[in-house]
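Possible regression after last week's pipeline update?

I re-ran a chain I had predicted before the update to compare outputs. Posting the input and the new output here so someone can diff against the archived version. Not blocking, just want to make sure nothing changed silently.
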Amino acid sequence: MTPPLADLLATARVVALPMNTRFRGVDMREALLFEGPQGWAEFSPFVEYEDAEAATWLAAAIDFAWNEQPAPLRDRIRVNATVPAVAAEAVAGVLARFDGCRTAKVKVAERGQVLADDIARVRAVREHMGPEGRIRIDANAGWNVDEAEHAIHALAEFDLEYAEQPCPTVAELAELRTRVRHMGIPIAADESVRKAEDPLAVARAGAADLIVIKAQPLGGIRRALGIVAEAGLPAVVSSALDTAVGLSQGAALATSLPTLDYDCGLGTASLFADDVADARPVGGSVSASRVVPDATALARLEAPADRRTWWLERLERCHALVSAGDAV
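New output (post-update):
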């Protein structure tokens, strides 16, 4: 049962977290937090998302705050560093914020940049991490098949762990996977899972070697676990640029997976200049324990009144969709 809207509003806090470096076009990350019987949860679909998509994120938050979650299988989660589309000379400073991380996910195919920028950035990461470091790239569907094939060939010398969502569609991913199979570089699907009407289509099409899953966009931990089980592919749990509270839900998902073969993208607290709690990686891992936001930080990071109003109105609309059964 969906709790009444009044129960969510009773503890709702809207926060705005400043970023250390612009990421995915975001300088300030907004989120709405609320507390339920099981603890705090986060509702933070990106501002450009329509209500129908955002309602799935709310269903995930309600589930995390009101219902018991699957039993944890591990206490800590190994995580990767995340390198935004920065200049090569800024790479060392970014990686320094990710204590002990042996893996780095590097953003590529940034709008307004060229392949030479990606090569320089990935080269800088490899030089900083040394030969034993693990490097994965994330194009956020920024290439067509020919561009992706060319880019992966150009970046292969840096010993890539995998390439995440190089192309937009399942058909393109399948074709690209065939073209680069001889290179031994796996293809990971992210948007083709979390933004798809059918998140299993990518697995059925043989279009990916692994999937990237996120708790909020997939409607909660149980649904995400079900998708992984049905897909039959290795999974990497990642964040959606969450606050420490949202990262806690991601950690709860990661700790529930029967196997965890890859470092997870749950170290993104290091991208923030401030947060509602400290969820930054220590020694390359994060705790799987539930996060309780700091009261002082909630006050310090409170969003302006107009933004609070915007989020509360969005919450009300999405709550109506969840209550009507129109969310996943």
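Follow-up from reviewer: compared with the archived run. The mean pLDDT is 97. Marking as no regression found.
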